[in-house]
Structure prediction request, 421 residues.
Amino acid sequence: MPSASDLPEIVMPPAVDGRPLIGIVGSGIAGLRAAKAILKCEADARIVIFGDEDHRTYNRPGLTKKRYPLSDALDMTIAEDVKVHGAENDALTWRLGTRVQAADLRDRILRLSTGETFEYDGLVIASGVRPRTSVWGDGECELHTHRTLRGLGDARYIHHRLQASDKVTLVGAGFVACELASLAREYGCEVIMLEALRRGPFESVLGERVSMALGRWLVQHGITFLTGDSAKELLCDVRASNPVPSSGPPGRSLFIEAIGSVPNVEWLHGNGLDLSDGVRVDEYMRVSPWPNVFAAGDVARYPDPWTAGNLTRMEFWKNAIDTGDLAGRSLASALGYGSVTSRIGYFPSMSTEVLGLRIQIAGNPKMSDSMETVCGDLDQPDQGVVVAYLREGAMVGAAYMDKGARFNSAYIKLLKSLRGR
Ligand SMILES: Cc1cc2nc3c(=O)[nH]c(=O)nc-3n(C[C@H](O)[C@H](O)[C@H](O)COP(=O)(O)OP(=O)(O)OC[C@H]3O[C@@H](n4cnc5c(N)ncnc54)[C@H](O)[C@@H]3O)c2cc1C
Prediction:
């Protein structure tokens, strides 16, 4: 990061009208919710949201959820252009297609891809994550080809290709991979899933037994699910024999990697921050030692009230909403608006749907040392199965899989005791 004197002309000067200037880096849901929270505190501030995508905030989980009609209006179909009340005046400005290249937190300056600089009074870091690529791409398979899914452009490409493809090979067995498998089946494709590091889907979250049961269930429903060495071998074969061209006419076989993500923090280098896994924040989402800098969403690593303050980073929509709200309120409070904010009090929960099977997870199953099936049979998840996750005999998480709502009330009961822990 150059010093302030090396920077080009300051195109956006600090607030001359006395109103504080707030920069939000990231136009995803966390950034938007932070902006909304600031406006709700009636902060007489000017907010600028910088986003390197060309779109305003949209429903990212929707990219894999169901089959969208294929048309040039795919953007319109998927995009959820959330309105911000009170922003009709100059309280909120969107700078889309604009990447923040670097930040100097000491001098409160952002350096933009346009060559401009932006001087802020308050900053929210909401730059999210990007897909990790090629676990095995370190020379073992020379033809390194992959497609990943994060944004609207990726989704447009994948939906179009799925329509024209017969076969999809997916690397990974996490949420995005499983949802893509489901989507590909809806398009009538043969699906091969390769998971070399784990024994089944969501293993790192739901544990081995549930994960293996889900793996068997996928196979029963027509998906070729390979793990371990067979996954690794096939991965090399697929890459060598069937590379996905980055340009030129696409074939009838699609190859997608969904093997996790990497936080977007490079633009913060040089500020002495702990960026080892996202941006470290305190329970108010503040980035120490800077009093007016906060982070939220997928990029923020915070002290988890669920694990006695262990640092955690969550990549879930609701978490981005909750932490975005909190970061916005905390920043408004730091600038003298609104009341003193509360600490993070997040109740982790999420749901996904794979081939019609709804999977709901709450609490923190990762922390458990044992699990028990409360209702149903793990080998028949579509008939309904509820699982409790325990640590030293106390419940720390729960999961519910069902195609209908057979054990809904049992799951709600578990959630109540989890919340009241
Ligand atoms: C395909 C898919 C399906 C999902 N399904 C679910 C689900 O079912 N349930 C669930 O709970 N969660 C789901 N998620 C996760 C959920 O979408 C994320 O948790 C949420 O979008 C995080 O929001 P965010 O604002 O923190 O980050 P993002 O949505 O990633 O937004 C960050 C934005 O900042 C931009 N940016 C990054 N760096 C810069 C920079 N230097 N300058 C300017 N802009 C920058 C990025 O391009 C991006 O637009 C899914 C995610 C994906 C990809």
Q: What stands out?
A: Residues 356-419 form a domain with the Enolase-like; domain 1 fold (CATH 3.30.390.30).
